[in-house]
């Protein structure tokens, strides 16, 4: 059974799928996603990535959308503000803890 590394812990694909299923079914996935989207927009993260993608498209014209996505993806992940990342992780941990208590 394949596993994946999440924050230094090995998680089975089955466990990952089960957690994601519960998050979606409970509505928590949408709530956390909206919170993340809002915080990233407020921080200027989305605007910075948009500007980076536009500059990349101008400098390598013509370029495929897939190429822009691949180039911007690593930057996007690396530039998520630490405060936002920690807040979202805390919300996920809180949800998981509440599920373990049931």
From TrEMBL:
UniProt GO molecular function: transcription coactivator activity
InterPro entries, alphabetized: TF_ENY2 (IPR018783), TF_EnY2_sf (IPR038212)
GO cellular component, one term: SAGA complex
Biological processes, Gene Ontology terms: chromatin organization; mRNA export from nucleus; protein transport; transcription elongation by RNA polymerase II
Task of the protein: Involved in mRNA export coupled transcription activation by association with both the TREX-2 and the SAGA complexes. At the promoters, SAGA is required for recruitment of the basal transcription machinery. It influences RNA polymerase II transcriptional activity through different activities such as TBP interaction and promoter selectivity, interaction with transcription activators, and chromatin modification through histone acetylation and deubiquitination.
PANTHER family with a match to the protein in the record: ENHANCER OF YELLOW 2 TRANSCRIPTION FACTOR (PTHR12514)
Quaternary organization: Component of the nuclear pore complex (NPC)-associated TREX-2 complex (transcription and export complex 2), composed of at least SUS1, SAC3, THP1, SEM1, and CDC31. TREX-2 contains 2 SUS1 chains. The TREX-2 complex interacts with the nucleoporin NUP1. Component of the 1.8 MDa SAGA transcription coactivator-HAT complex. SAGA is built of 5 distinct domains with specialized functions. Within the SAGA complex, SUS1, SGF11, SGF73 and UBP8 form an additional subcomplex of SAGA called the DUB module (deubiquitination module). Interacts directly with THP1, SAC3, SGF11, and with the RNA polymerase II.
Stated name of the protein: Transcription and mRNA export factor SUS1
């Amino acid at each position: 059974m394949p596993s994946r590394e999440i924050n230094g812990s090995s998680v089975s694909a089955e466990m990952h799928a089960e957690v994601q299923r519960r998050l979606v079914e409970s509505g928590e996935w949408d709530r956390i996603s909206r919170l993340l989207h809002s915080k990233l927009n407020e921080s200027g993260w989305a605007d910075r990535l948009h500007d980076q993608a536009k500059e990349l498209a101008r400098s390598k014209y013509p370029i495929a959308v897939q190429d822009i996505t691949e180039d911007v993806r690593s930057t996007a992940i690396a530039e998520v503000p630490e405060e936002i990342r920690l807040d979202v992780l805390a919300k996920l941990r809180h949800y998981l803890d509440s599920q373990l208590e049931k």
